[in-house]
Design brief:
Helix content is 51%, strand content 17%. The chain has 598 residues and is an alpha+beta fold.
Length: 598
């Protein structure tokens, strides 16, 4: 027997599979549009069931159209009365989508009637009954995650259809009983379906998957603050406390005015959107006072070091401020040194007694550099230069790129290049000048967060270099090289970095590195203009760095992110076959009841 083995997904690929969920998200349309569409569909459904009766359109409106509109109105009232929350946009869209079931069974009856003598009443009875199946799990997920509380709302559309149907068809006692029994079967199947798909998340993380859908949907489509708190509470329930390395570099004018503070925490700015460490650069900026400009490049950390709540981000800001208050300034720095060897480039530059090290694998794509590798590199740099800060440039990504982890060959190459670059930087010292500029006029949909593009230009010994920090989650291959080439003739050297801000992943589609949705020429041109302005702003400065250990910060913890994405992906893979099976079972039993009792 041959054993077929397929390649397992790495974590980055698993995350990308999870991010695909967002492509199914959309903002529900205006109720005016969905209500109008519902009436049109109901008329067509009337013709589907009752043609050639001249009253087909009226029957369609009376049995399906008006009840559908009432269901859209009453759904919101029922949800609010039960302590939940739903928008009219969603309730009317739900009513419209529910019409797919009468349409489906109407078409099925028309097709079968070409070959058999099956009666229309069978399709007419099962149509409203089957709507319960859909309404129950949708309302459970997006409004009220409780089966008993969801029950009245789940059946209201069916009841509203059954009332005019009973009088207009009309239905006899047996048919009414079968309709009630069929409704109960579909309701039970829907509840069982929700319990099955909720089990994996409840088993491993203590919460039903259905209970997370509503806050996730509200946050991504409505930017609801309360939903963000609910999601952070869930993430914090399995958090681990860790101590992480962190450094700051301060730049101030010789007149004593604080200008620019670089904050490099070894935490991960995820998991997504504004949740936890999401939008970390903006959150850190808001938490630090007395500094005009704040730059937050990506530290060396994977999703294991995702901050679980916004409160944890405040700890980063507070510790950065504490480190900045103890800075010892100097007018000395060093030239910008670049070492490229065996697929890794390391840049190093002294700021006072602290060396800033920037690592990139571009043009070879990678994801994060993990914390152990980063810490090992920092200790190595410190043994040479005194104090050291390591930044992951995070500037070249394709789907499936893996992380750089301690023990891998590329991690060894990184460490070797760090040593070479730092040794070269410490012997090229001189007085330093610096300038800063920022362009915030970008959109999240373009893959760039609230901090936009920040540029720090530095001059030492007559040589100018630029750090271009883009507030995004990595970068498509080739864009970094285009930006650097666009700066030729303005500076002697440059490196492009991203903050790894996961707020950009909240767009529909999920995967959104810088350059995927923005015109490359646009960002190259605007960066070039920004660097030109920055050069004109350069002045003699005093610089200094400080490092320390941020203790007791709450993060995802070891291998939690892979476990979470695995559970989510497994649940998603289960949904469609289980959904089909749980719908077909009550459908079969309903037809069986009709054949036996009608």
């Amino acid at each position: 027997m041959r054993l077929t083995i397929t390649r397992a997904l790495n974590f980055q690929e698993s995350m990308e599979e999870t991010a695909k969920f967002s492509k199914y998200l959309f903002t529900a349309p205006n109720p005016l549009y969905t209500g109008t569409a519902l009436l049109l569909v109901s008329v067509l459904t009337g013709f589907l069931f009752f043609y050639p009766d001249e009253r087909s359109a009226l029957f369609g409106l009376a049995i399906f159209g008006i009840p559908g509109l009432l269901a859209g109105l009453l759904t919101k009232l029922f949800v609010v009365a039960s302590g939940g929350k739903i928008y009219f946009r969603r309730s009317f869209l739900l009513a419209l989508l529910s019409m797919a079931f009468p349409v489906f069974f109407g078409i099925l009856w028309r097709v079968l009637s070409l070959f058999t003598h099956v009666e229309m009443i069978y399709a007419l009875i099962i149509s409203p009954a089957s709507i319960v199946f859909f309404r129950h799990f949708v309302i459970y997920a997006i409004a009220t995650p409780s089966h008993p509380i969801t029950l009245p709302n789940a059946i209201i559309h069916t009841v509203l259809i059954a009332i005019p149907m009973t009088y207009l068809i009309p239905l006899n006692a047996n048919q009414i009983v079968v309709l009630i029994a069929s409704t109960a079967l579909f309701l039970l199947a829907s509840a069982i379906f929700m319990e099955i798909v909720s089990y994996p998340m409840q088993r491993f993380f203590g919460v039903k998957a259905g209970a997370l859908v509503k806050p996730l949907l509200d946050h991504l489509t409505e930017k609801d603050v309360a939903s963000a708190s609910a999601l952070e509470k869930f993430l914090d329930s399995f958090a681990s406390k860790v101590n992480v390395y962190m450094g700051v570099i301060g730049i101030k004018s010789k007149g004593g005015v604080n200008s620019t503070l670089i904050v490099a925490p070894a935490v991960h700015p995820g998991p997504f959107s504004m949740i936890g460490g999401g939008n970390l650069p903006e959150k850190v900026r808001q938490g630090i006072k007395n500094w005009k400009n704040i730059m937050v490049p990506h530290g060396t950390a994977t999703h294991d070091f995702n901050l679980t709540t916004t409160e944890e981000c405040k700890k980063v800001s507070a510790f950065a401020s504490e480190l900045a208050d103890k800075l010892r300034y100097s007018s000395m720095g060093s030239e910008f040194v670049r070492v490229s060897d065996r697929g890794f480039t390391v840049c190093a530059q002294m700021f006072g007694d602290t060396v800033l090290v920037v690592a990139t694998s571009a043009p070879n794509p990678t994801d994060d550099i993990d914390y152990p590798t980063g810490l090992h590199a920092v200790r190595l740099a410190e043994s040479i230069a005194g104090k050291a800060i390591l930044v992951d440039a995070h500037n070249c990504l394709v789907k499936g790129s893996g992380a750089v982890r301690l023990g891998m060959e590329r991690a060894d190459v990184l460490l070797e290049n760090v040593e070479k670059a730092v040794r070269a930087a410490i012997v090229r010292k001189g007085e330093i000048k610096a300038g800063y500029c920022q362009d915030r006029k970008f959109q999240i949909e373009e893959g760039i967060g609230p901090q936009g593009v920040q540029v720090l230009c530095v001059e030492c010994n007559g040589k100018k270099n630029a750090y271009v920090l883009v507030d995004g989650n990595n970068m498509v291959p080739g864009l970094r090289e285009k930006i650097i080439k666009g700066l030729e003739g303005i500076v002697d050297d440059a490196e492009v970095l991203t903050t790894d801000n996961h707020i950009v992943n909240a767009t529909f589609g999920g995967f959104n590195p810088v350059g995927k949705k923005i015109d490359h020429a646009k960002i190259v041109t605007r960066t070039r203009e920004l660097v030109k302005r920055c050069i004109t702003n350069m002045e003699p400065v005093e610089v200094g760095g400080n490092v320390g250990i941020l203790k007791g910060v709450r993060v995802f913890g070891h291998e939690t992110a892979p476990r979470l994405t695995t559970v989510m992906n497994t649940t998603y893979s289960m949904i469609w076959p289980i959904l089909g099976a749980m719908f077909l079972l009550p459908t079969f039993l309903s037809f069986l009841l009709m054949f036996l009792f009608i």
